[in-house]
């Protein structure tokens, strides 16, 4: 069969305070057009439907219109899971009757072991889960990490495999070896959310969500679709779109289909006088989300107000003069930002006591941080 793989819609997300609902609706229309043009048999959404566990009323309205259009009006079966940004409890509302229109939305771990079968393919819809969920489901107190939980999850799934069908896993995790961008803000607790690629070998295709770049992982049987929009300056050069996947018991193939943003994320550079000159700003799309690099050394009175009169969607202004001094400070801050919460605690503990954390202390810290993360997600 043929299906479309997308993920990380993050409906309701803002970019430096700017509302993206119009851009998200436009991206959806392009995704729908691709689904129709490619005559897909289903659409897969691998998590993070919303940007927040409690989305705004406007975000819910936009998402509802999308699903009504895709599933009820255009009659595409939709196979979706909840991601780490979603509230599985809230998304679960309505699930029992969604399936009547071929809208399969899994939000709990136990739902992942009953595959959705379409044509020649079994879809295992595995929502984002914390280690404690696997620990409780399997009754195994030894499960403390996602890797340990995934080993048991996949063993259980493999019991349902049918030899005459292809197997597709839809999941929302960080796979070891993948590359993140600045807009992926999920808390990493000492590597608890990392899944080794080797665990996924038994699937013909793994439709992943969580990372926002399509090139975050290059594997023969696994891909991130990436987000439909650019959510940070670090994604400026990324191509956004969806994967079209064809499953076959002999071989699975996939092809990327690009979508064009309604408003792009762009970086421009120049002196103040150059940037406010008509011959310059009329040569670019002023409606894009712009990060401006100023080459001026002198102080410019009322600079931001003047720039905003010409460029309505400025997401940042950077002074290139004095960059080297700022880089030294920013590099130190960046080093701290790259540390996981567990590593930060470990570093603090070592600096204060002069000793290393014991294995038992690390387990206690990981457990408490995981519980805090789960409480913050409202689950």
Automatic annotation (TrEMBL):
The gene is sbcD. GO terms for biological process: DNA recombination; DNA replication. The lineage of its organism: Bacteria, Bacillati, Bacillota, Bacilli, Lactobacillales. Heterodimer of SbcC and SbcD. Keywords: DNA recombination, DNA replication, Endonuclease, Exonuclease, Hydrolase, Nuclease. This is Nuclease SbcCD subunit D. NCBIfam families: sbcd (TIGR00619). It comes from the Bacteria. Belongs to the SbcD family. One of its GO terms (molecular function) is endonuclease activity. Residues 262-352 form the Nuclease SbcCD subunit D C-terminal domain. The keyword Metal-binding does not apply. Residues 1-212 form the Calcineurin-like phosphoesterase domain. SbcCD cleaves DNA hairpin structures. These structures can inhibit DNA replication and are intermediates in certain DNA recombination reactions. The complex acts as a 3'->5' double strand exonuclease that can open hairpins. It also has a 5' single-strand endonuclease activity.
